[in-house]
Please model this.
Amino acid sequence: MQDFLRELRDLHMPVMERDFENYLKDESRFTGHASAVVRVRNARDVIAVVRPANRWSIPLTVVSGKTSVTGGPVPLGGVVLDVRGLDSIDPEDPTRVGPGVILSEYKQWVEARGLCYPVDPTSEDSCTLGGNVACNASGASSFLYGPTRTYIQGLTVVLPTGTRLSIDRGDVVSRDGIFHVPGVLLAPKQEDELVIPVPRTGVPPWHVCKNSAGLFSEDPMDLVDLFIGSEGILGIITGIRTRLLPRRNPRFSIIFYPPDLDTTVLMVQILHRFKRFFHDGEVALAGDIDEALVGLTSRPQENWQDRFSGLVPTCIEWLGSSTAPILSADRSRKLGNSYGALCVEQEYPQGSDPTDTASQWNDLLEEINGFMGDGRRTVVSEVAVDEKHIRQIKEERHRIPEKMNESVKPGMVKIATDFAVPMSRLKDLLSLYDAELPNGKSYVFGHIGNAHVHANMIPENDDEAREFRSIYLNMARKVCRLGGSVAGEHGIGKLKREVLAMMIGSEGIEEIRKVKRVLDPKGLLNLQNMVSWV
Model:
């Protein structure tokens, strides 16, 4: 180790061998250990560290924002490689950005130029673009806009051997389960091509279930997608080329308070059929509205497609009634009279009156309440049109994790799910939470528009921690049987390897190892992330 560190100092690298405790943990409170921290300033520095590390067989753990909740950036020996110094944005081309750039700062930078990078995880004020790519980060707006993967056009990656790979979408696409990477894309250039297998992990197809568990898998597959969501086990990202959209339109918020589970699921599945997708900045339908609303009207001949064509939800978030104690008094009171709250955002054209579109939502709610008019309570709603009210709702929603963390006793950790299921199994997921979670010591919230709902259990002592861990594992098994994912957006890291194996089996784990053996033959990069190295 000392020979390696001496070599780095000879290259005038900033090396820290003490007082770096902050590098040994992430937001999960999981703690590791390391011999030193090296802070790189540019892509050349990364290569200058990786090549001798490979020669001396020194493990490297890559860190940037450290906002992970899975132990991903926590080192288990070796040296920490801090890439936050790679924080440049090309002033001539805003799509070219370094991995150390803070997400919210990048979004503000491109918005000032009339553009939009729509990825919006709750941690956007502290997470980095490189970390987002590493775990395929998403957020509330991923309901409409999709996760990070949708907005990455190219990557520059330093492989664990010290070779640099630069790829744009379309450069390398798999054929018959194999990537053939021409030597011209590698630096230094190689005569022979690099052959990488596609990981056949058996994960749910991306268009069926939201998923960030294990390596991305489809065939044919773009090589860029192999590195997105790979949690740093295949290479170190030193450059990113993003896909930007025109600046987003203004938006307003509507909160619906459904009275029970069945009404909640009905509403979400209806709204899911209103989902759109973006193509070159244009909105297009992804489903058939008429089919979605069959049975909800006494006027079946009416053209629902025309009547509700203005409804374009950008997000559909969920606040379960269990979150009432950590919300404002007014929100808590409203949640106390319902099964929970559906928080919907809607964009509207610049300069138009948002109440015109809001009235369409009111018409839809009347139809739903009419359909539910069988003696059950109706759905009530709340509309926020002014910017202050909209911001209050969003901030309250985003403060839920912070409020939960404040309730965790010293020495304890919360036990959190990141489960997602196909939309057709949403009722099963919510019913599972209702049946299994400890009453009064758990909170349910999240991205219900993607059938991706978080449950957090807060133990007060070691006995409860063991009990809640058992509950978590039992629910994970059932989610896998539903065709779901054990990690909808946070990845696996070091803390969820057990449930990844539960989801994809030993064969799927071996498929991930096959890819890593090609790109990281010594197994030095991000030890114990996703899979143990055997």
Residues 497-519 form the longest helix (23 residues).
